[in-house]
Amino acid sequence: MKMPKKDIIQINEIAREFKMNSDQRKEFGYFLEEEKRLGYGGTKNDRGDFIYQELREKAREFLGLN
Predict the structure, then answer these.
(1) What span, in angstroms and rounded, lies between the C-alpha atoms of 39 and 42?
(2) Stretch 46-56: mean pLDDT, rounded?
(3) Where are the alpha helices (DSSP H) in the chain?
(4) Would you say the pTM of this structure is higher than 0.85?
(5) How far is CA 46 from CA 10, 20, 42, 43, 49, in A?
(6) 32: nearest Cα among 48, 21, 53, 9
C-alpha cells in the first residue's frame, strides 16, 4: 500500500518533531500500516489514513510516551 506524498511529508514532520532517528522513522511507518491493518486507523478517509493530530498521538504511542 503506497502512501500519497503529502502523508509521507507529514509522517516525516512528526518524526522530526519527536526526534526519531532513521530506523525509528522507518519502524514508525510500519507501525502505522499495521495499526491500519488491525483496524486502528485514522479518520482522514475510508482507507484509515491519519490526520496530523492522530499522527502525533500515534508517535507518542509508538515511542511509549503515553
Answers:
(1) 9
(2) 94
(3) 5-17, 22-37, 52-62
(4) yes
(5) 18, 28, 9, 8, 8
(6) 48
Residue 41 CB neighbours (<10 A): 19
d(CA 46, CA 43): 8
Distance CA 2, CA 23 (A): 19
User: Grid coordinates standing for 9?
Assistant: 511529508
pLDDT tens by residue, 3-36: 568 889 999 999 999 999 999 999 999 999 999 9
> How many Å apart are CA 32 and CA 55, to the nearest integer?
9
